[in-house]
Specification:
The complex is a heterodimer of chains A (857) and B (162). Helix content of chain A is 26%, strand content 26%. By secondary structure, chain A is an alpha+beta fold. In chain A, the strands form 10 sheets. Chain A has a 7-stranded antiparallel beta sheet with strand order 1-10-9-4-3-2-5, with no helix packed on it. In chain A, β42 and β43 form a beta hairpin. Chain A starts with 16 loop residues before the first helix and ends in a 19-residue tail after the last helix. Chain B has one domain: Nuclear Transport Factor 2, Chain: A (Roll). In chain B, 24% of the residues lie in helices and 46% in strands. The longest helix of chain B is centred in the N-terminal third of the chain and has 19 residues. In chain B, β1 and β2 form a beta hairpin. Chain B has 4 helices and 6 strands, in the order ααββαββαββ. Chain B is globular. The chains are: A alpha+beta (857), B alpha+beta (162). At the A-B interface, β11 and α10 of A face β1, β2 and α3 of B.
């Protein structure tokens, strides 16, 4: 069948100088480029030079180990500063001092953060008209991520975060490349007389040849192989052959044994006889195979060593598996055999491109293992590849067939960004019906939507939920969430519960508030490791810690709360608070080596940690200054129930006692001295004495807060603060007229839903009675309503549970139901919630009778 | 010092250059011991590391050479200019080492536009040979060759030994 003209790309996209210049401007100056690997700047003061779209770039590792990127240009006269490809600023240069980046032209000097620290003849030449404090290197957006690659974006305000842009593309590979620190062992480059997109297209064909060929070489039938291809957003493609998930794993295993056997016994194999040989092998018991190997292997040590390198792969990959990721517009990551190989492109002209190839292994490789990785890498990527690698034999002279979708995906993305139709560059881009980009964006704001820009500070429950609700309410403007933490925003409640019981040193993605895909699907930009330094309400700009400024139309502060600390415990080792996943990881790491933990604070955090770590076998003392645990948040009967529960599990509860002194040995926590003189010894200390609203930014910006010197941000019923374009939600916000914040998931969800309704002019959500839950040991507490602690008119009535071990405590103020605390009795909780949501107060004289139904009277 | 032996080693290096220039792989292998090992290496100031671009023994090399006719490659012949700088024969007379400078030119045949490019000669790579010899019955044969290149930028190239 003949193809219409729209089935072909316009040849001018490969040759037109004007299009090439646009590509530099709208593609290469907008996307994240992996410019080098962090092992190329391994030590503080190491540097590496590179370039993107003709802009010279200097990558340095600062004394605090942070990798920074700058334009490699002196702000004085625009001279190129560093001309070497790599080196260290630790040593002085003829024109500069040690630990300084020095421009040889007029000897201006800069530190590793780009600050100008010396201007020659500053006073004599400039008097007071200019100070070195006014100058600095032009800092670039820089992230070290995905196996330690250094990613730079020339756009100071990237339209999309690195994580959003990469999306799922490197997710499969991340379990391998983030398993252990990596190190570059190979580098070369090539300048080829071709357009960079032609290089991409050839790589696609090359990959198809590999995957097609592998099916044959591996002896796996097409149906059982796991060769696959996935199109992802932004023109990225992932493909490869993974054996780990497919049903042919048994075949793969047997095949591995066959190879091992053949390797040891020198048995000649014929690829066309593999199936037959596999059947023979599979009929043999594994032990028999080993016996044969043993009998045929005169030097066991040599065989073991040989097998180790013979079967060497990348972490979490199996020998023979391939994983290939193409990031638009031409960054190519491949794991083949035991090596990670990465090719990047730097377009030089319409008909000229520079390729850079890196080979990477693990930093901890032994000499023998590194040698094998180099060999595997060279099999494909050596610049002087002599002869042919085994897998390519017989195949490179023939076309294995093309999957047009590879190319369509790539050129659709090109067209979307360039706003040109790939099949006719004179016409504007029109997304095909199946393309996710249904609205052709303007050239300079390629990832932006029209409409308001709402910025959320804090990827808390409240912060994420406000974005979620806004999208669900139909908001089609831009949403950016800024988060100080690294990684994806996590659920907080599990941190003191199930999360603490895990042994992994990393965060479990099961606890993510939202999976990565959600951000992309909803077009919500999440920028992690991004701290806001200042809110400028006049200009409606946020100033970030690296100097970047972000304009907002509406701002939502969801910065949450920070744990209260004890000044007397500051600076002492093995002292913890718990708020962030990193806190929980530190606690569980220390807990694995500790025998006893002392917890200051008998609130929910302290008690949940006690229950979790008791399960791990630690001895636990809980110290509470009040006369009972949960004095501020639970009724006395409920607190007593939980106290008995903890005591029965061997936790020592010490109430009515303050902490006078922290005992340390060599700077590490050793115990506490209580107000009654009791000394307790322990290996670690958890401080769980509540939280403070994280309102510093708001207070400094001049927003109304509870107290003159800070405290919760005051909001009205629409969640507006004292500024008409700023809202606050979650733990940091307090409704005017109320006295105390409520730190709970329910509060986060409700306030954020109200804020989203405000911003989108949607109907406000139904207000529910506050609810809360806590898991301790095998007991689940579910609470609805707020227990008015300290109100003498309030009393509790206990009600037996509908199931064994269940009980609930119903709090009344006179005859009005105000709260219910339910232990291990979900059905009663649902009834209690229904009562409080609908304003129903069951008769307090009858509620203690389990046969009385609170919702039918 | 055995001047004849030094002369013979020098001639062996030059003969190897001629055999490689003319792609007479068997002639080259004939100058090599059965345990011959070959490597192309380079030091990269960019990543501050010694790198191995290729390594293999005689058997592997032979296998790869046999595959060359099936491979798409640039057909522009390479010409090596070699100058032997030092030859050091071990005291026991059983081994020797030699260091040579090597410059490889590419006489263009293939090209983006062979109509224009063919016939031109370009500098391909520069570097040194670090050779080790094994001497048996007064005959020196290559035991190991490291072609240590200064190039880290290698554009359109060949798939032949340097």
């Amino acid at each position: 069948m003949s193809k219409s003209s729209s089935q072909f790309v316009d040849s001018r996209i490969f040759s037109d100088p004007e299009i090439f210049e646009d590509e530099l401007e709208y593609i290469f100056k907008q996307v994240w480029v992996p410019v080098c690997h962090e092992s190329e700047v391994a030590q503080p003061y190491d540097f590496r030079t590179t370039s993107i779209a003709r802009e010279n770039i200097l990558v340095v590792r600062a004394h605090d180990n942070k990798v920074n990127a700058f334009l490699n240009v002196c702000p004085h006269r625009g001279m190129l500063i560093e001309r070497r490809p790599q080196g260290s600023f630790l040593e002085g240069q003829p024109s500069g001092n040690p630990k300084r980046i020095t421009c040889m032209f007029h000897a201006w000097q800069f530190d590793m953060r780009g600050n100008c620290v010396y201007v020659a003849r500053e006073k004599e030449g400039y008097q007071d008209r200019f100070s070195k404090n006014d100058a600095g290197l032009r800092r670039l957006r820089c992230e070290v991520k995905y196996g330690g690659f250094v990613w730079v974006n020339l756009n100071d305000q990237p339209q999309i975060s690195l994580e959003e842009w990469v999306g799922d593309a490197l997710e499969d590979m991340s379990v391998s490349i983030e398993h252990s620190p990596l190190e570059v062992f190979h580098y070369h480059k090539a300048v080829l007389g071709r357009n960079y997109k032609e290089n991409h297209d050839d790589l696609i064909k090359f990959r198809q040849n590999i995957t097609n060929k592998l099916k044959i070489n591996d002896g796996l039938s097409e149906g059982s192989s796991n060769s696959r291809l996935r199109h992802l957003g932004f023109g990225h493609v992932i493909s490869g052959m993974l054996r780990r998930q497919h049903q042919g794993e048994e075949v793969s295993r047997l095949y591995g044994e066959l190879l091992d056997w053949a390797h040891t016994t020198q048995l000649p194999l014929r690829s066309d006889k593999l199936d037959e040989q596999l059947q023979r092998i599979s009929a043999m018991m594994k032990s028999e195979i080993k016996e044969i190997i043993k009998a045929n292997a005169p030097d066991q040590e040599k065989v073991r060593e040989s097998e180790t390198t013979h079967n060497l792969s990348f972490p979490n990959m199996k020998r023979g598996e391939w994983l290939i990721v193409d990031l638009f517009p031409g960054f190519h990551f491949t794991i083949h055999g035991s090596a990670l190989s990465v090719m990047t492109v730097t377009p030089l002209a319409p008909d000229e491109v520079m390729l850079e190839v890196r080979g990477l292994g693990l930093k901890g490789d032994t000499e023998g293992i590194r040698s094998k990785r180099i060999s595997d890498h060279n099999e494909v990527w050596s610049p002087l590849n002599i002869g042919l690698p085994a897998w390519q034999r017989d195949s490179d002279l023939e076309e294995q067939g093309n999957d047009e979708q590879y190319f369509r995906q790539y050129y659709n993305e090109w067209g979307r960004i360039m706003d040109r139709l790939p099949s006719n560059v004179d016409e504007k881009f029109l997304a095909p019906p199946t393309d996710v980009a249904t609205t052709p964006p303007s050239k300079k704001r390629i990832f932006e939507r029209p409409g308001l820009h709402v910025v959320v500070i804090g990827a808390s429950h409240a912060g994420i939920n406000v974005a979620d609700k806004m999208r669900k309410n139909g908001f089609d403007g831009n949403i950016t969430i800024l988060d100080r933490q690294s990684g994806g925003p996590m659920e907080r409640p599990p941190l003191s519960k199930a999360f603490l019981l895990e042994s992994d040193q990393k965060s479990n993605s099961n606890y993510l508030l939202k999976q990565k895909k959600w951000y992309r699907t909803n077009d919500i930009r999440l920028r992690t490791k991004t701290s806001v330094e200042k809110i400028n309400l006049e200009t409606k700009k946020l100033i970030l810690n690296d100097g970047e400024q972000i304009q907002f139309d509406k701002l939502v502060i969801a910065s949450g709360a920070v744990p209260r600390t004890l000044p007397i415990a500051e600076g002492i080792g093995n002292v913890f608070v718990l708020r962030q996943p990193s806190d929980a990881i530190s606690i569980r790491k220390q807990a694995s080596a500790a025998k006893k933990i002392i917890i200051i604070g008998g609130g929910y955090i302290g008690l949940e940690v006690a229950a979790s770590l008791r399960k791990k076998g630690l001895d636990i003392d809980v110290v509470e200054v009040a006369d009972r645990i949960l004095a501020r948040v639970a009724s006395a009967p409920a607190a007593n129930f939980l106290a008995d529960l903890h005591t029965s599990h061997g936790v020592s509860l010490l109430t009515g006692k303050g902490v006078d002194e922290i005992i340390e040995q060599n700077g590490v926590f050793a115990g506490v001295k209580l107000s009654d003189g009791t000394a307790l010894s322990g290996d670690m200390l958890l401080i769980g004495i509540g939280v403070l609203p994280d309102s510093k930014l708001a207070y400094e910006a001049g927003l109304d807060t509870l107290m003159d010197d800070g405290g919760a941000i005051l909001v009205d019923e629409n969640m507006y603060t004292s500024h008409p374009d700023v809202l606050a939600v979650g733990d940091v916000a307090l409704l005017r007229g109320q006295k105390a914040t409520v730190e709970s998931v329910h509060n986060a969800q409700e306030t954020s839903a109200v804020a989203a309704a405000t911003l989108t002019k949607a109907t406000p959500p139904m207000i529910q009675a506050p609810w809360f839950w806590s898991d301790q040991y095998d007991t689940k507490l579910q609470s609805v309503g707020i227990v008015p602690v300290g109100d003498e008119r309030v009393y509790q009535i206990s009600r037996p549970g509908k199931r064994e071990g269940g009980i609930s405590f119903w709090s009344y103020r006179e005859n009005d139901l105000v709260a219910v605390e339910v232990f291990s009795d979900p059905a009663t909780y649902m009834e209690a919630k229904q009562c409080l949501d609908t304003g129903r107060s069951p008769d307090p004289n009858l509620i203690g009778d389990s046969s009385f139904s609170p919702i039918s009277h | 010092m055995d001047l004849d032996l030094e002369k013979q080693i020098e001639r062996t290096i030059y003969r190897a250059a001629l055999a490689l220039d003319t792609q007479q792989w068997n002639d080259w292998f004939a100058l090599c011991d059965e345990k011959f090992e070959y490597a192309i290496t380079s030091f990269s100031p960019e990543i501050n590391k010694d790198m191995i671009y290729f390594s293999g023994d005689k058997k592997e090399l032979k296998g790869l050479m046999d595959m060359l006719p099936k491979h798409n490659t640039d057909h522009s012949p390479l010409h090596r200019h070699t100058s032997v700088y030092t030859i050091d024969v071990a005291k026991n007379g059983e081994t020797a080492t030699a260091v040579s400078s090597v410059i490889v030119y590419q006489n263009m045949l293939d090209g983006q536009n062979s109509h224009l490019d063919s016939g031109e000669s370009r500098l391909f790579v520069i570097g040194h040979y670090h050779d080790k010899f094994i001497i048996k019955d007064g005959m020196a044969k290559f035991a190991h060759r490291e072609a240590k290149l200064d190039n880290r930028r290698l554009d359109k190239g060949s798939h032949w030994p340097i």
